[in-house]
């Protein structure tokens, strides 16, 4: 099976990788004959040979319209395509025209929870033209893959054909997180080093993993942490992900100075030591206004840590309220603080939730790579 993918993730071009995106596509490539990826990019990128049969091609475009036109131009050059996989409906507009030219099947992935979601911060899909393109492309796709049942339910209510929608969440290498302390002695040392560092020692740290983005709602997170600190002085905050706050960035956050003085970590999420931060923290929080899945919640549970998250579509797919973590209303800093404080004051409950979370994610969210490939074959067939 020859697959052509259209993506907006420039990490596939070898720069600024977020998470395990390259590794995931290498795994896809092992299960197909060829995987070619057209990536939306500005000028200055080169073709990236990811593996023997996986190659990423930059569009080197000016803006969204330029990307769509350039992607169509590049896509029409490929021969023998069986399936076109698009990361979202706007990207899917280019996929639709390539489908018309090549006769390949068209799959639209909804990695973000933006179609029909009024809480989404994605202006493209909240605009009249974004909504129009979404409906046009999704109605003409051969299949639609969503990350959660909640997303599927919404699409059905909007009138899309339920027979061509399937729920398969983003693959997570759960074993990588579960086995991290036991794989290498240096991994244990990394966890111990974080736990015993001068700034960390004696504190219970709240971990937030994610890019610097409005959808992550850092304002609500900071207000919640400030409220927690009013009652529990020995709390710290770690920020880990694909953003670079630096001293100036930290200074702009609406946090009490005592919190700002605690460790604030900043690195690319691809870091091999990411599991160490889960293991060294007390719990993981996700304050987003919109999430299609919430992979960090799965990763935290895999490391045996409880989670507190806002009630996004994706979080509700992962968190069983009161079992492996807590769910709170979106934008409610008081409720977020209350649940964080409850776990800080009850280590036994926190430990039990983390253990239950590890069992849950192992059963429910083991690597979905093969499920995705099987779905691709079903669509082509």
Describe this structure in words.
The protein folds into 2 domains: 2-172 and 367-380, Rossmann fold (3-Layer(aba) Sandwich); 174-364, Rossmann fold (3-Layer(aba) Sandwich). The protein contains 18 helices and 13 strands. The chain has helices spanning 21-29, 63-75, 89-102, 123-126, 128-140, 149-157, 174-178, 180-183, 185-196, 218-231, 246-252, 257-260, 274-280, 295-302, 313-318, 333-344, 347-364, 369-380, and strands at residues 2-7, 34-39, 48-51, 54-58, 83-86, 105-110, 143-146, 165-167, 204-209, 235-240, 283-286, 307-310, 325-328. The strands form 2 sheets. Strands 3-4-2-1-5-6-7-8 form an 8-stranded mixed beta sheet, with helices on both faces. Strands 10-9-11-12-13 form a 5-stranded parallel beta sheet, sandwiched between helices. 45% of the residues lie in helices and 16% in strands. The protein has 381 residues and is an alpha/beta fold. The longest helix is centred in the last third of the chain and has 18 residues, at 347-364.
Helix % is: 40-55%
**Structural class from helices and strands?**
alpha/beta
Query: Which CATH class of the largest domain is shown?
Result: Alpha Beta
Rg, rounded, reads 21 Å
Q: Specify the number of helices.
A: 18
Mass-distribution shape: globular
Q: Give the CATH architecture of the largest domain.
A: 3-Layer(aba) Sandwich
Strand order of the largest sheet: 3-4-2-1-5-6-7-8
- CATH fold descriptor of the largest domain: Rossmann fold
The amount of beta strand, in percent, is 15-25%
Kindly report the average pLDDT value. 89
Q: What is the CATH superfamily of the largest domain?
A: Glycogen Phosphorylase B
Number of strands: 13
CA-to-CA gap between the ends? 11 Å
How many strands, which pairing sense, and closed or not: the largest β-sheet? 8 strands, mixed
Number of domains: 2
Runs with pLDDT <50, length 5+? none
């Amino acid at each position: 099976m020859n697959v052509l993918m259209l993506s907006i993730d420039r990490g596939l071009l070898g720069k600024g990788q977020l998470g395990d995106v390259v590794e995931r596509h290498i795994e896809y490539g092992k299960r197909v004959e060829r995987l070619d990826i057209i990536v939306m990019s500005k000028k200055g990128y080169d073709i990236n040979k990811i593996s023997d049969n996986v190659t990423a091609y930059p569009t080197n475009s000016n803006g969204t319209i330029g990307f769509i036109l350039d992607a169509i131009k590049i896509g029409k050059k490929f021969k023998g395509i069986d399936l076109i996989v698009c990361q979202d409906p706007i990207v899917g507009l280019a996929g639709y025209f390539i489908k018309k030219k090549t006769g390949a099947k068209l799959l639209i992935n909804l990695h973000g929870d933006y179609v029909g979601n009024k809480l989404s911060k994605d202006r493209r899909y909240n605009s009249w033209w974004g909504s129009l393109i979404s409906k046009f492309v999704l109605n003409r796709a051969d299949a639609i893959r969503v990350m959660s049942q909640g997303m599927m339910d919404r699409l059905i209510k909007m009138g899309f054909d339920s027979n061509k929608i399937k729920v398969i969440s983003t693959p997570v290498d759960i074993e990588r997180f579960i086995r991290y302390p036991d794989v290498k002695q240096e991994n244990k040392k990394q966890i111990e080093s974080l736990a015993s560092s001068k700034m960390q020692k004696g504190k219970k740290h709240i971990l937030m993993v994610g890019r610097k983005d409005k959808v992550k709602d850092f304002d609500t997170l900071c207000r919640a942490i400030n409220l927690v600190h009013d009652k529990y002085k020995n709390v710290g905050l770690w920020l880990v992900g694909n953003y670079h706050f630096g001293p100036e960035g930290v200074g702009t956050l609406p946090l009490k100075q005592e919190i700002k003085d605690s460790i604030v970590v900043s690195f690319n999420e691809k870091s091999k030591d990411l599991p160490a931060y889960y293991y060294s923290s007390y719990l993981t929080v996700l304050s987003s206004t919109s999430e299609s899945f919430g992979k960090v919640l799965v990763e935290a549970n895999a490391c045996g840590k409880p989670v507190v998250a806002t009630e996004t579509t994706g979080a509700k797919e992962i968190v069983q309220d009161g079992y492996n973590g807590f769910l709170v209303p979106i934008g409610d800093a008081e409720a977020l603080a209350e649940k964080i404080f409850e776990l800080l004051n009850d280590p036994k409950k926190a430990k039990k939730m983390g253990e239950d979370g590890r069992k849950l994610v192992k059963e429910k969210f083991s690597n979905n790579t093969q499920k995705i490939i099987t779905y691709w074959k079903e669509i082509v067939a």
